Amino acid sequence: MAGLKKLDTTATVTWLGWVKSREASLRSEPLEAVQATLDGFPGEDHGGATRPSCSRVLALYPQRGTTIRNTRQLSIVSAEELAEVAATLGLETLEPELIGASVVVSGLPNFSHVPPGTRLQAPSGATITVDVENGPCNFPGKEIEAVHPGRGKGFKAAALGKRGVVAWIEREGRIALGDPLTVFVPDQPAWAGA
């Protein structure tokens, strides 16, 4: 049995970006293409092989700042879900840079709930591995508020279940705007033990 099953559907890269410094701003800067490495997007503040643990993993690592594997190198959102969040906020569009997105894809329904372990493979062979759904937080709301006054505070509620996923680079290579991404999902039944 193969560990991954190739789907007939593909996603398309519609936007790429990187965050220079989270301390300065969560806002991403747009890119046309990127040569992804095993540490993520070169120069991106979320990159690196490891990261300090944060509030998301306190159950595992009660001591914040514990060095752990970085499975949060990228923030990937879908164009369709981004449009839904924008509509809920009463906006015509919600710019991906305001929420610190690394990649925006189109063509995958209910993208925020793809199974952990899903792979997205670019024509170059560059492969992104999905870790988990990216739960919405308050930080993007500040960026949204700066551009769309009165809308930022509603982001967390509007983005629940539609914030995309966090991911990491499994294989290096070029990723560019317009690239089709081949989708591979874990070839296993859903776990009923939870």
Automatic annotation (TrEMBL):
What SUPFAM superfamilies does UniProt report for this protein, alphabetically? PK beta-barrel domain-like
Q: Which Gene3D superfamilies match?
A: PK beta-barrel domain-like
- PROSITE patterns registered for this protein in UniProt: MOSC
InterPro entries on file: MoCF_Sase_C, MOSC_domain, Pyrv_Knase-like_insert_dom_sf
Q: Which Pfam families match?
A: MOSC (PF03473)
Superkingdom of source: Bacteria
What would be an example GO MF term here? molybdenum ion binding
- Where would I find the MOSC domain in this sequence? 28-184
The entry's protein name is MOSC domain-containing protein
Q: Which organism is it from?
A: Vannielia litorea
